[in-house]
Structure formats: C-alpha cells, structure tokens
Amino acid sequence: MKKLMMLAAAAVIAMAGTAGAAEHEVKMLNKGEKGAMVFEPDFLKVEAGDTIKFVATDKGHNAESIKGMLPEGAKAFKGKINEEIVYTVEKEGVYGIKCTPHYAMGMIMLVVAGEPVNAEEAKAVKHPGKAKNHFAALFGDLTQ
Predict the structure, then answer these.
(1) Over the stretch 24-66, which tens digit does the pLDDT of each residue have?
(2) pTM for this entry
(3) Active-site residue flag, 99
(4) Catalytic: which of 28, 37, 69, 107?
(5) Number of domains in the chain
C-alpha cells in the first residue's frame, strides 16, 4: 500500500510539472501580415516545457530547426512538407527555425525560451538571402 501511495504521489508531481505548459500555434503561410512566405507569428517568447504546433495552413511549407541556432542539449527537428509538426521546447535559450524550401526568401522565425542563453552563438550563424535581414530584425526585437 505504501508503495502504491508513493507511485501515486510521483505521478501527481510529474503531471504538475507539465500542467502549466502552454501550446503555441504557428501558421505556415504563403502570404501573411509581413509579406510572402512567412511563419505567423515569426517571434515567440515561451517557457521550457511549452509546445509549438506548426500548422500547414498553406501547402508547400515545413518547419525545421537551424543548425547552430539551438540551445545546448536541445533536440533538432525537421517536419515534412505540408504536415503539421509539434515540437516541445525543452531547454532555455534561442531557437532558429526555417521553412526549408523558402529559407532564402526569409521564411524564418525566432523562439526564445526563458533567458536567451545562446543568443550570441545563434546570431553568428550565416543565412542566405532575405533570411539574413529578417533574423537581424528579430534579434533587434530580442534586445528591447
């Protein structure tokens, strides 16, 4: 009986840790408020434990983490084209995300979980085309 009560208590504690987690929805769009080929929103402030659901609102998009733009120990991810993907943010820091086919067109987003502990490393990553300027603007928002 004592063992059963301890297991039940452990289950309650484990559920309490995820009970406050939020789910954030990001649309993958051909056209949005900021122009063509965008994630909407393109900037999220979240907490470790939150999930991000990337919704394939328009066809031809995916969501993929960018090498060098993840906190240490965070899992990289790559969604399939035209498919929803849900990613759980496990570590505090900055996450860079791209749509693989539209990366050079600037279809990127920035996620910050808690403190941006890896911001300098993430800023140092090189990007093609419009993604470079778009990230510069998003990092500018991060400091405000």
Answers:
(1) 999 999 999 999 999 999 999 999 999 999 999 999 999 999 9
(2) 0.84
(3) yes
(4) 107
(5) 1
CATH number of residue 24's parent domain: 2.60.40.420
CA distance 141 to 143: 6
Active site residue 15: no
End-to-end CA distance of the chain: 55
Q: Residues 99, 109, 127, 134: which is the catalytic one?
A: 99
pLDDT digits (tens, 9 = 90+) for 93-123: 999 999 999 999 999 999 999 999 999 999 9
Asked about 102 being catalytic, the answer comes back as yes
Q: How many CB atoms lie within 10 A of CB 71?
A: 22
Catalytic residue selected from 37, 102, 127, 134: 102
Can you give the residue range of the structural domain that contains 48? 2-142
**107 flagged as catalytic:** yes
